[in-house]
Design the sequence.
């Protein structure tokens, strides 16, 4: 007998309930039922907010910031999307490097080496888009980091953007390395990034993979949130998207993402 939640068509649970229960019970979904499946980004983000409320009620803590997904052309092609989307970082799933995580708590362990940012001041929503320089001036520090991507859907590559957004943009965990400040003298686009597994280099890339520059991803997030009436706040973390091809980790893997002068982030499963 399958471990999937069962639905009664006469009383279909909400999409948020199904997704949060899939995470807390560690079961996967083929898809969300037609009556509750989000059909647009707007509906998907409303569902995502409800999922986050459920996760906070279950695990405690608070929202710690945002993750940006599909800022890399490779990721966009894999998921058949043409623009980024975002999810929320939840403090219960944020870890200081080096982190040791239970491999069995993930359906898949998609490791992404990402530039993170810590915000120094609030950026309230505005009626016009903020320029990148203004946004950069609100950044306190850059952070070498690793995002662990996971999905509550069996076939996450074809399920579609609204369902992925609703599933908190496939976010599972975030491992943050050291805060680097001042950082303005660094060329983040040219900064090389390497991912090593058990001491062997397996992936290489740079900040240019992230919409051309990690700050471009942050600019996209700030102005997308602003269009939804939401601002960034001082103390929030942002992780900006994968800089290399992803690595699918296995139990026993020790993974280090090396950002050169920025330092490293490490996780072991």
Sequence:
């Amino acid at each position: 007998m399958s471990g999937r939640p069962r639905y009664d068509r006469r009383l279909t649970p909400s999409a948020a309930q199904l997704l949060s229960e899939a995470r807390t019970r560690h079961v996967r979904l083929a898809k969300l039922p037609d009556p509750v499946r989000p059909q647009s980004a707007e509906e998907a983000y409303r569902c995502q907010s409800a999922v986050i409320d459920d996760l906070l009620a279950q695990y405690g803590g608070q929202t710690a910031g945002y993750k940006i997904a599909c800022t890399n052309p490779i990721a966009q092609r894999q998921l058949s999307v043409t623009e980024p989307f975002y999810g929320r970082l939840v403090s219960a799933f944020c870890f200081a490097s080096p982190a040791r995580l239970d491999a069995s708590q993930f359906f898949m362990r998609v490791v992404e080496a990402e530039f993170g940012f810590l915000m120094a001041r609030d950026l309230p929503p505005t009626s016009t888009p903020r320029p990148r320089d203004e946004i950069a001036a609100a950044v306190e520090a850059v952070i070498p980091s690793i995002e662990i991507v996971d999905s509550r859907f069996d076939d996450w590559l074809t399920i579609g953007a609204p369902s992925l957004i609703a599933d908190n943009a496939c976010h599972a965990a975030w491992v943050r390395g050291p805060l680097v400040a001042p950082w303005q003298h660094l060329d983040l686009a040219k900064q090389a990034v390497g991912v090593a597994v058990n001491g062997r280099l397996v992936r290489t890339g740079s900040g240019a993979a992230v919409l051309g520059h990690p700050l471009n991803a942050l600019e996209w997030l700030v102005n997308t949130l602003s269009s939804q009436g939401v601002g960034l706040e001082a103390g929030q973390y942002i992780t900006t998207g994968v800089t290399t091809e992803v690595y699918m980790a296995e139990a026993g893997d020790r993974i280090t993402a090396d950002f050169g002068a920025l330092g490293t982030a490490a996780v072991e499963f």
Remarks:
- The chain has one domain: 15-268.
- The helical segments are 15-25, 41-59, 73-79, 132-136, 161-166, 214-227.
- The domain at 15-268 is CATH 3.90.850.10 (Fumarylacetoacetate hydrolase; domain 2).
